[in-house]
Amino acid sequence: MLRVADAWWRAAAYCLHPRTIAWSLAPLLVAGGLVGVLGWFFWEDAVAGLRHWIDHWGLTAVLLRWLDSIGAPQFRSLLAPLLVIVLAVPAIVLATLLLVTWLMLPGLVRLVALRRFPQLVPQGRETFWQGMAWSLGHSAIALVALVASVPLWFVPPLVLVLPPLVWGWLTARVLAYDVLVQHASADERHRLMKHHRWRLLGMGLISGATGALPSLLWVASAATLIFAPVLLLATVWLYTLVFAFAALWFAHYLLEVLMLERQFALAATPAADVSLST
Predict the structure, then answer these.
(1) Rounded to two decimals, what is the model's pTM?
(2) What is the pLDDT of residues 78-122, one digit of tens each?
(3) Within a domain: 227
(4) How many CA atoms lie within 13 A of 123 on its CB side?
(5) Torsions phi, psi for 204 (to 5 deg)
(6) Is residue 112 part of a domain?
(7) Residues 6+ apart with CB under 8 A from 91
(8) Number of domains forming the structure of the chain
(9) From CA 185, how far away is CA 126, in angstroms rounded?
(10) Helix (H) and strand (E) counts for the chain?
(11) Could you list the residue range(s) of the whole structural domain that residue 163 is in?
(12) Any idea what DSSP says for residue 218?
């Protein structure tokens, strides 16, 4: 656990490195630009379409009548924009994670390796397309899990627990693979991900819980919905920072344990040779 904590504060320090700040602009520009364009052209249409669907769906009609009965008719106008946000945020989180993984993580791993582990010889043989298949495959599993858990979100405590659990698992699987894919052989990668799976999952869960914080921008006040397109861009920026920090955290931890494992194997080899010769 000391190595996990050590990697955490090192990742926080590396977030202030000029290269990290510069590299963070790439996913921010791509995801933020896409969100801005979609929000500018389709926000009002999406809200209008959902409002029409809400008004003509039986279950939501019951909910709206109940809101009127308790003297809260103003929530009727907020329900459609809130649903648009609820549907958009998971897509934003997933897109930001994948963009950080594809655009930032290789450079971040090289930065950590050159500054802390220059003697670590890269032994990865996987291609970019194999890494993309790994990321997209686990992303699909996470999306299925999120969709399947939606009915449980109406139980108040679970809506604060289930999405971070899913994002934490996805973050651990994707970042651990992409950190090790450049420097570890396939056998080393499988062994490290299996041996350290609970620590990696814990790191992923903390990252997933931290990744839920940008969503708090939307619960500050109902007035924030007026600035939804701008807040969507701010949310993308915050998610970029969260996943960049998580990538650095995983890089510092996994490259260190990879180096230690190779040193241990190298130290054990002469002893094994001597015992065989005698």
Answers:
(1) 0.79
(2) 667 777 777 777 788 788 888 888 888 999 999 999 999 999 888
(3) yes
(4) 13
(5) -65, -40
(6) yes
(7) none
(8) 1
(9) 9
(10) 12, 0
(11) 2-42+88-267
(12) G
